[in-house]
């Protein structure tokens, strides 16, 4: 979606009445064993939203895991995954890859699980969740793309047009929150969601993947 302005121009529109960003993974991507997003299958460390060699891929996930320096890898996992055990996890990855390259997502998840304290292995989320998130963000340069796309979306809106963003982790939500505040302070939009909107208990029961969703919206003045 970083090419939003170009796409709008290509289809011959001057302004649009609404833009919705759903920043999450699709169920099809999660369930695609060739993607490497899931730690439940022995998939190649791919984690690309598009096809190989497409513009969406900035780095190769296998390269990040197997070739990046320890300090580079730790920075990615700590900053993009907000993982408090980043140093322990990186130590385990470095040790494992000295024997042979880490080949698939299940192997990587097992290495991570063994690296963290035992109590962390049986929490609400899988211990590899934050690390996989970090690697996916780094592979696709997701946060930069979001920062580029949001101004394009806001500028493309017609008067009274709506901008709606659904994010799934705090890094994305922070970018969205500050962008909307900045535009509201400039007088170009009005924020419609005073507080972030999250899924109800009933919705989470029917759709467990909605538990992390955070919705914010604004209207063009």
UniProtKB/TrEMBL annotation:
InterPro entries, alphabetized: RsmH, SAM-dep_MeTrfase_MraW_recog, SAM-dependent_MTases_sf
Pfam families recorded: Methyltransf_5 (PF01795)
One GO BP: rRNA base methylation
Is Transferase given among the entry's keywords?
yes
GO terms of molecular function: rRNA (cytosine-N4-)-methyltransferase activity
User: Got a GO cellular component term for this one?
Assistant: cytoplasm
Q: Which UniProt keywords apply?
A: Methyltransferase, rRNA processing, S-adenosyl-L-methionine, Transferase
Report the superkingdom from the record.
Bacteria
Q: Is rRNA processing found in the keyword set?
A: yes
Instruction: State the PANTHER family in the record.
Output: 12S RRNA N4-METHYLCYTIDINE METHYLTRANSFERASE, S-ADENOSYL-METHYLTRANSFERASE MRAW
Q: Which family does it belong to?
A: Belongs to the methyltransferase superfamily. RsmH family.
Q: What is this protein called?
A: 16S rRNA (Cytosine(1402)-N(4))-methyltransferase
Its gene name is mraW
């Amino acid at each position: 979606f970083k090419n939003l302005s170009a796409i709008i121009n290509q289809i011959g529109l001057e302004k649009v009445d609404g833009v919705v960003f759903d920043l999450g993974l699709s169920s099809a991507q999660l369930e695609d064993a060739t993607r490497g997003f899931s730690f439940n299958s022995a998939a190649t460390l791919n984690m690309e939203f598009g096809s190989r060699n497409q513009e969406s891929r900035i780095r190769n996930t296998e390269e990040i895991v197997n070739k990046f320096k320890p300090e580079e890898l730790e920075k990615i996992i700590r900053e993009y995954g907000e993982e408090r055990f980043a140093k322990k996890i990186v130590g385990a990855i470095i040790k494992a890859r000295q024997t042979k390259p880490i080949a698939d997502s299940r192997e990587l998840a097992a290495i991570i699980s063994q690296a963290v304290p035992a109590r962390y292995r049986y929490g609400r989320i899988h211990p590899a969740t934050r690390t996989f998130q970090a690697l996916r963000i780094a592979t696709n340069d997701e946060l930069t793309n979001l920062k580029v796309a949001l101004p394009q979306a806001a500028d493309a809106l017609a008067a009274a047009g709506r901008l709606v963003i659904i994010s799934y982790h705090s890094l994305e939500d922070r970018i969205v929150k500050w962008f909307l505040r900045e535009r509201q302070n400039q007088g170009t939009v009005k924020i419609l969601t005073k507080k972030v909107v999250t899924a109800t208990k009933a919705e989470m029961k029917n759709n467990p993947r909605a538990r992390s969703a955070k919705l914010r919206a604004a209207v063009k003045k």
